[in-house]
Structures are given as structure tokens and as C-alpha cells.
Amino acid sequence: MQEADKHERVVEMVMKTEMPESSILKKYGSTFDYVDYYQSSFIDKEQSIDVDKIVKMFFTSPPKWVNVLFTLRNKVVGFLGLKTPDGMAERQQQLDSFKC
User: Does the pTM exceed 0.85?
Assistant: First the structure.
């Protein structure tokens, strides 16, 4: 099954919200310069969702600007002689072997 097909089986709803009472950030009070809180619900039409799938969806569907920044980063660090990912094949291999 194609990765895009897998994503269509899960409907995601994201809403902006307040800091949850159970948040570990509560112990720091309100001394943050900037914070956003979001709550997300997933509806799995085939009832086959698990944590691994959620994490993989998160890492395989970033906003376009994130991909642009990573491409820029890889070019800069590659120019400096640092190791960069070998592209989509390495990324897919990492995702395939990922376990929570």
C-alpha cells in the first residue's frame, strides 16, 4: 500500500487549546516568551492505528518550509564536510526500522 493511501485511512483533527493541567510545563509557571498548545484527535477508519504509525505520519508529512530548511541545512553542512543524509532511501530505511 502506498504511503499516501495509509494517510487517507486516518482523519486528523488539530485544535488550538490552553495548557493542560497535567502538562509538565505547569511547574514552570507562566515565564515563557512564546508557547502554543494544540490538541489532536485521530479517527482511524480501519481501527488499525498505533503509536508507531502516528509518529511515522508526523515525520513523513512536514510542512513544505521544513523540507526547504532541511535541504538548505544539508547543503551548508555538506559544504563544511559534515555527513548529510543520503536522501529519501536513507530516510525511508530509518522510518521502516523505527519502533516506539
Answer: no
Q: Mean of the per-residue pLDDT values for the chain? A: 76
> Residue 28 CA to chain centroid, in angstroms?
25
As beta bridge partners, residue 14 has 40
Query: What are the structural domain ranges in the chain?
Result: 1-49, 62-100
Contact 10, 57 (CB under 8 A): yes
Q: Are 41 and 12 in contact (CB under 8 A)?
A: yes
Tell me the C-alpha distance between 25 and 19, whole Å.
8
Q: What is the dihedral of CA 18, 20, 21, 26, to 10 degrees?
A: -80
